[in-house]
Design a protein that fits this description.
mainly alpha, three-stranded antiparallel sheet
Length: about 120
Amino acid sequence: MQAYVAAIVPFSTTIEAASLVLEAGLATAFGARPAVALMESAFTQYAVALGGGMAGAGFVATPPPAPVGFALLFAMGPAATREEGLQRLATKIDVWARSGVAALVAPPNTPQPWA
């Protein structure tokens, strides 16, 4: 995820810290059954931590709304291939992440999606 969000605009100064939050949350999720709710929580906490680092660039962040949608994704059933499964997961996370918004603190206070 660090490489994915490194190019995100606006820039976040908390990429590394947010990644550690996500890593810890997913470790907890994968040790639990069912893991879906804890996975959702891990990504929500990640987005909040990442958004907090956008203040240094002069933005107020609104993280993507929860949930990512893992339950619906997993309800689709197994993918035909590992690659297809990974692509489904990556697409779901990407669409969710891009729904975050950051507003410039100074005029013209322009909001922009995390991209």
